[in-house]
């Protein structure tokens, strides 16, 4: 089971997750596990960065796989643009 696949609206998203993992990123139609490195942030590129870099840094499509065997804990720190303005 996984949460809905999506890209983040903001510039960058910083993620910390526990050892359960579960984040997957899409590349050329395939899904890859994005296992966090202990004591580090995992950084997702967002839509705002893709737009401001004219597509040089693509916004990553991702989702999270979960199960009923292990408790997944994650902390996401995101900046998001106002929906009615530029920033
Ligand atoms: O929990 C995670 O690792 C990712 C959460 C996420 O994709 C989000 O908050 O946009
Ligand atoms: Fe996300």
TrEMBL record:
Keywords: Iron, Metal-binding. Residues 1-81 form the Fe2OG dioxygenase domain. One of its GO terms (molecular function) is metal ion binding. PROSITE patterns: FE2OG_OXY. Pfam families: 2OG-FeII_Oxy (PF03171). This is Fe2OG dioxygenase domain-containing protein. It comes from Vitis vinifera (Grape).
